[in-house]
Amino acid sequence: MSVSLATLLLGFVIGYLGQRSRLCFISGYRDILLTGDRSSLMGPVGCFVGAIVGFAAVSLLGGNVPGYPMIRHMNIPMMISDAALPFLCAVGIGVLGYMVGGCPFRMHVLAAEGRRTYWYYLAGFYIGLLFFNVVTTRIVEWLTS
Amino acid sequence: MPFDRDSGRGTLLQRWQVSPFFAGCVLGIGAAVIQGYFKVIPPVAYGVCMVCHPKDLLNWIAAHTIGVDWEYSIASIQAPLLTVPGVLAGSWFAASRNGELRIRPAHQPVLYFACGFFTINLGLVLGSCPIRLVLLAAYGNPKGIAEWLLVVIGVVGGALVARLLARWRAKEML
């Protein structure tokens, strides 16, 4: 139960801060290209810095961070060779994120503000989730077998 | 107390200007703490993910109500991950406290619906959302770093294509 409470609390905090700061993990890359504005880019940078500090601190304090830092324990050429499909998906997420102007986190925040455009996004998102469970998993299994 | 935007009057919480860097830092540290001390693991760097946590929650509920065998992560075997309800509640609370909560009309609903549909499918095949890719990169996962760069390439590529299309359309109109 502590997992549920912890994730609910962290979700509430980042939802609050995300709404106040317009935190987004897509729009920063777009803004710096189109307008030269670097403020949105500071969100992913802050997350990266915070996560490095957080994982290092948790590791030093004896928390559960197995294999950290991962780069020391992984077979990089083998891992990259299996990654064609995920790599294509990563590019696709970038393109789709550009088209709607934000990452899934930002879409949830905007929907909670009452913007109906993003309610349609979330409708597609959760219907897509059901589709993934029923259809996409089988297609991926077939492609990777 | 309602927030007065013009005069800037309101409670300390309402007047607090949050920078994206600070919000990102809190997210990153929170994700590390939640993995390290609240067992949101495996997989690693799973503290926040806006495609996998919705899947885990929905599939957990489906498994415990209608008994379907849809996959969810080991992190959510004991109890569901409630990140998404938390994000929705937190952003709704922030918007309502600061006078930004109001129903606004929809634009291009079909485009947004389709983008949401394909985003979650691509995200679940990838196994990450843009937030988790940053967390994986911070965890030292080379694949996470490569995929983060590819998301950036996708955004930049999309922007360049859109710019080219706009120029082409402008030329056609002339």
Structure characterization notes:
The complex is a heterodimer of chains A (145) and B (174). With 145 residues, chain A is an all-alpha fold. Chain A has seven helices and no strands. Chain A has helices spanning 2-21, 27-34, 42-60, 76-81, 84-100, 104-112, 116-144. In chain A, helix 6 packs antiparallel against helix 7 (116-144). Chain B is mainly alpha-helical and 174 residues long. The longest helix of chain B is centred in the C-terminal third of the chain and has 32 residues, at 142-173.
What's the helix and strand layout?
The complex is a heterodimer of chains A (145) and B (174).
Chain A: H1 2-21, H2 27-34, H3 42-60, H4 76-81, H5 84-100, H6 104-112, H7 116-144
Helix pairs in contact in A: 6-7
Chain B: H1 12-15, H2 20-38, H3 52-65, H4 83-97, H5 109-126, H6 130-138, H7 142-173
State Rg of chain A: 18 Å
Low-confidence runs of at least 5 consecutive residues of chain A: none
- Helix run count of chain A: 7
Instruction: Please trace the helix and strand order of chain B, writing H or E for each element.
Output: HHHHHHH
Number of strands of chain A: 0
How would you describe the shape of chain A?
A: globular
Low-confidence stretches of chain B: none
Distance between the termini of chain B: 54 Å
What oligomeric state is this?
heterodimer
Shape of chain B: globular
Sheet with the most strands of chain A? none
Give the proportion of residues in helices of chain A: over 70%
Strand content of chain A: under 5%
Mean pLDDT of chain A: 90
Give average pLDDT of chain B, whole number.
Answer: 89
Report the structural category of chain B.
mainly alpha
End-to-end separation of chain A: 37 Å
The largest contact between protein chains, plus residue counts on each side, is: A-B, 113 and 118 residues
* Overall helicity of chain B: 55-70%
Reported for the largest beta sheet of chain B, the result is: none
